[in-house]
Amino acid sequence: MVGLTRNSGVEYGEFGISINAIAPGAIMTPMVEGSLRQMGGDDWEAVGKDFVSVNPMKRFGKPEEVGNLVAFLLSDAAKFINASVITIDGGQSYKY
To answer: Which of 3, 6, 55, 56 is the most exposed place for a label (fewest CB within 10 A)?
Structure first.
């Protein structure tokens, strides 16, 4: 996906088309909550806290935080951002 985003951004940039990708980390969606409930039962929130304990921000991301990034990338403020992969994971991927 990274290669496709970068190559496509380079290929189509001259036509005024920006191509970017968003790489989210652990975002608290209904699917994630369902998985935590399967793993932890009534104690699913403790399982979730353990899961994000390695995250520098010690929490799950929120869907609206990803939505805010999408809105920014679609705005005129991001016109010159192209061929980029933007990570939104509270800094977790940079620990490895």
So the answer is: 3
